[in-house]
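User: We ran a pulldown and think these components assemble together. Before we commit to crystallization trials, I'd like a predicted model of the whole complex to look at. Sequences follow.
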Amino acid sequence: MLKSFTSTIMVFGALFFTGCLGGASNELDGLNENEYQIVKERQDFEKKTQADINFDIESGTNENVTLLMDAHVTVMYRVALQDIKEITNIRLQEKKHLNINKLLIATKDYYYDSVNNALYVALRIPYVYMLESSFTYTMDIAMVDIQKLAQQRSLSLVFKSKPMSDNDESFLSFTYEDSFLSDNIDPFILNTIEAERAQTNLGRFSVEYRTKYEELLGEL
Amino acid sequence: MKKVFLLLFLACSFLDAKQLGVVLVSGKGMNFAQQTADEITTLMGEQNEYYVEKNSVDVIVDKAGTLKRDLKRKGVDGLVSFAQSKKWDSIVMVEYKRSLKRLQIKLVVADEIKDRKSVSLRYTDDMQTLLSEMLLSNVIRLNYQLGVINAKELY
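Assistant: Here's a predicted model for the assembly, 375 residues in total across the polymer chains.
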């Protein structure tokens, strides 16, 4: 009895693994060596990034609004590009409160999958960026097209800490209306902001934003 | 107590700081100006705001490619010796290949392993305003990929 049970488990296990491996290799099937390398590296980039949220941005779109259900997350954007050969550099900016003006690093922050014409950009959104109800990143992508001409695309990425339409969804870790915007701040948020402190460059933030930060942490 | 930890944290980050060397090789089709070198240095300072380690970049403009010829004759060992004499942790040679219209960016790590990696980028005159950004982005990228810098982020 035990033997037949063990065999059944093994058969199911084998089927499961075959299924998993089969599914994972599908995208790589039929690719030449160069294409295989590109897609494999992109898959590795996705794996390494472990994004919490994924978004597709179509080729004609220049703005994306992200309603964050939670912060301290990594958002992955899959930006569709047309006839682009290579990405030369990407600059990310926020000029209102956070004063971010940063060059993204290829293979760390982004990867261009030229086989599928898709740029994958991973952005980390800590709680400390969400002390206001929203902020906007401008992402300038410098690239070269298949005609070997320089091209630029500017994307506006808006992050809002507004509640989702159904605020009672079970996967929400807290209700924003009861968090930053009122006196009843969830202690979990404060503790996370405190934990982010060692990694936070406060000197870059605007004076108003820094004051807000100090006031918030004063409540701990 | 928190301040002590913060000071220790900052001290450790400075210990991790790396000096990245860049040689811009002037030649046919591209004469790198000192302005490009200065812009790259300034940009690097700005980028340090986002990383725990405070790295710096030292950029040399190799007029007429004399340094390149000398180093090429000595091979990888010559490159590493030159970088070490400058106290650089890595050396990046940037050269414009006019026939291909591409910038060749090659990095060699200045240690006994002499690990190396390169990237080639399309470059035309209409990309001039982006040149410093392009170069620095790829210098950081290669140094990150070969583990010279860890690029641990600051929010």
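The interface with chain A takes residues 5-6, 9, 43, 46-47, 49-50, 52, 101, 121-122, 124, 126-127, 130, 133-134, 136-138, 140-141, 144-145, 151, 153-155 of chain B (CB under 8 Å). That may be worth checking against your pulldown data before setting up trials.

User: Thanks, that helps.
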